[in-house]
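Standup notes
- DV: blocked on the single-chain target, sequence here:
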Amino acid sequence: MTRKFFIMIVAVLMMFACAGCGEQSSNNINTKPIGKDKLVVGLDEYFLPFGFRDESGEIVGFDVDLAKETMKRLGYEVEFKPIEWANKENELNSGNIDMIWNGLEVTDERQKNMLFTRPYMSSGQIVFVYHSNQYSLITDKSKLAGMSVGIQGDSTSEAALDLDNELKFTLKEIKIYSDTAAAFDDLTKRMVDAVIADEINGRYYIFKNGLENKIDALSISISDKGDIAVGFRKNDIRLRDEVQKTFDSMVADGTAKRISKKWFGKDLILDK
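- DV (later): unblocked, structure below
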């Protein structure tokens, strides 16, 4: 009886041990944060350089490259879905998309309805000048006094200048353009002394058009810089954390820097 009892005890212990092994193995599986194999990224398909359609109709862009690499490392398929930008929060919270990765600025109002990663980039209105020793003495915006400045009409750049009367009324001339490209074109022709434009869009335009030796971006802000991050539904904390962890690894190994240089010729990724 003693031997039979001993054998039964060993058998029971082995059963529990095997059950524990199975449970441990299951817990080690890299399950998807929200139980999907594909994630949908919402974007404005006309927002250069973050996300837009190229000549062949394919959605490309700086944020598109970042998102593709992140999803690849997480093991997801990814779909880029154009949305009506004004309706972005409803698109997100209805489940039509899983995240917004498209030059999305973090604001107090948006934080009430979205969950964000840490900012990976910031941008604001800065001063661009012709590449010349003549403009090397411009170290702050007060040095723009008496100069002609180009600006896109009905833009955030114009709004920022309108709020800065101290600067605005010291300028010799303010030339309004239909778009920033036209303003930069006149800058290269020396038709204006400076251009005020969004830093990210300006740097992209300069790099894309090979104007690094003609136009300089000065570290002179005309407005406060806004932080840019990835937006999620409020309850998708685990997904946000997985994306953040993976993105951090891309910063650490230089991948994010490489993607930034591809689009801007410069590393614009923020440090932690």
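- Follow-up: Residues 15-31 have pLDDT under 50 and may be disordered.
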